[in-house]
């Protein structure tokens, strides 16, 4: 059932977002970060320095915490780095900073789950977290997510696209509220490809993995650029997409995602080899060390026109284009790595949930309502993101650009092998593809042990 719901909502997000749009360029619209209100906001580090009583105040279950100013603490971990996301966090601070002592924690995709679980074990306050609504099993199964059903009134519910809230619903309880869609895509620097003698017509919206590799080789053979580049944060997406796309049918994929197929299966070995080979061949910037390239380092390489194909999540495409100064570019879909006619792709929605370690549920719900409001959804749409709730009429959204970062929404698959177990998820997201590249099939033995352990629980 959740599979059908996810497909419906992702297919509908673009239509919902565009309903009130007046076309036009969105250049720069999402990059105006509000001034930092330092007096009202503390980072996690400043918390220990400026509010020494906060930790002690949080030692009792659900006890409210208050700062020296008398305002209740609101601890948030919601911001995946990026101009639009940073600005949204600042808007929240400006909106609620007079009411709550807002403390921001660093959000990192590789460690967010562990951070929340560690905080819960220590009874440390975290009130609001960004996480993926279709991957909440690791929290719901151990009782670490707050049931939001009672807070979702009819007025708030009416702002979301049909089916959106079902993505974060498990059983009959709502645990996560989705706010935007995301999946991997590629930005093509046409200045680089043209310099390598590649015609624009050769660069298709959807190409196969072999076609992508061939074009990358031509860039390296005929210019001083590299075929492709990817930020270290998203390197794991290469193997996660590979193991999803190597199956011939959705039926086979479903069995794999359910943990019923071994990591030693030939399909999986071939998937990892496909990724390993491009790094061994040196097709990714800067050759050696390609798995450790930071976002800022990649921006620099793009600005210098050293990378032909840039892998980014759709939510970061506009920011990357703006921050690197690209003028001649094309947005392509993630290369198809298999022959499944449905061409499933990794992705889904970003959302918010409230951990059970929260000491300020009321403030977290208030923040969540603002973060999914028409004001913020419009701001995200104008900044090049595809929101899951209504935006304002007359919003300044580039319709062609929005189409380019949402056209694969119907291909996003609702399940993934990492949902089988938390340890397996950690390994796939934080140690791959590096472990396979350096340790080969020994890493698959480790993953197989984790798979067997998870399915036999």
Q: Main sheet, how many strands, which sense, barrel?
A: 7 strands, mixed
CATH H-level name of the largest domain... which superfamily? Periplasmic binding protein-like II
Radius of gyration: 22 Å
* Distance separating the two termini: 24 Å
Proportion in β-strands = 5-15%
Number of helices: 21
Shape: globular
pLDDT below 50 for ≥5 consecutive residues: which ranges? 1-5, 7-12, 19-63
Instruction: Provide the helix percentage.
Output: 40-55%
Structural class by sheet pairing and helices: alpha/beta
Number of domains: 2
CATH class call of the largest domain: Alpha Beta
Give me the CATH fold name of the largest domain.
D-Maltodextrin-Binding Protein, domain 2
| Strand arrangement, major sheet | 2-4-3-5-13-8-14
The overall pLDDT average reads 87
Which key terms come to mind for this protein?
single chain; 457 residues; alpha/beta; D-Maltodextrin-Binding Protein, domain 2; 2 domains; seven-stranded mixed β-sheet; four-stranded mixed β-sheet; 21 helices; 15 strands
Describe the structure.
The protein has 457 residues and is of the alpha/beta class. The chain folds into two domains: 2-182 and 348-411, Periplasmic binding protein-like II (D-Maltodextrin-Binding Protein, domain 2); 184-344 and 421-455, D-Maltodextrin-Binding Protein, domain 2, CATH 3.40.190.10. The chain is 42% helix and 14% strand. It is built from 21 helices and 15 strands. A seven-stranded mixed β-sheet has the order 2-4-3-5-13-8-14. Helix 11 packs antiparallel against helix 13 and helix 19 runs antiparallel to helix 21 (441-455). The longest helix is centred in the N-terminal third of the chain and has 17 residues, at 2-18. Mean pLDDT is 87; it is low at 1-5, 7-12 and 19-63.
